[in-house]
Design a protein that fits this description.
Elements: E1 2-11, H1 15-22, E2 35-42, E3 45-52, E4 55-67, E5 71-76, E6 83-93, E7 96-106, H2 116-137, E8 147-149, E9 152-154
Antiparallel strand pairs: 1-7, 2-3, 3-4, 4-5, 4-8, 5-6, 6-7, 8-9
């Protein structure tokens, strides 16, 4: 059975700032307590190491859709911790953005597996940590603002076909 949880928070920064910081995946361990490491493997693939207490899991996630200042959708490639989700960004004024995280996951079972209410509390707490982090910074700095559709990077207009050493996030 697939279940969906949704958590929303207002963040006191402009839309572009909230979106840009969220897409800097490798900075997640700086403000999210369950995220220990994130590596951008390819433009549309990330490797995550997450943990709660003594339990840790590593998984890869594919970015399926990414539209600057709008949303980002992903799915995990992990067999045991299968999930997918969307993060959307909605402007509420010049300096306030609503960030909504929707996660779809199968009913996880087995030792060391957390229940959906626990996942909801963790996601809500981590979204609060994100808000405090970016509100404290005030600016996300320069970041890649490309588009991904169907798990494939869309070539930007006026952009060379490839950029050696390019990193996303």
């Amino acid at each position: 059975m697939v279940r969906t949880l949704e958590v929303t928070a207002d963040v006191a920064v402009p839309l572009r700032t909230a979106y840009d910081q969220w897409t800097r995946f490798e900075s997640f361990p700086r403000f999210m307590t369950v995220v220990r490491e994130v590596e951008q493997v390819r433009p549309a693939v990330t490797r995550w190491l997450v943990g709660i207490g003594p339990f840790t899991r590593e998984f890869h996630a594919e970015i399926l859709e990414q539209e600057p200042d709008s949303h980002l959708s992903w799915r995990s490639w992990d067999r045991d911790l299968r999930h997918a989700g969307t993060v959307s960004f909605t402007p509420r004024g010049p300096a306030v953005t609503t960030v909504t995280v929707a996660v779809r996951c199968a009913a996880w079972e087995g030792p060391g597996v957390v229940t959906l209410p626990v996942v909801r509390r963790v996601v809500a707490a981590e979204l609060g940590h994100f808000a405090a982090f970016i509100e404290g910074l005030g600016d996300a700095g320069d970041t890649w603002r490309g588009t991904i559709r169907g798990g494939r990077l869309q070539r930007l207009e006026n952009e060379p076909p490839s950029v050696p050493g390019w990193r996303h996030g």
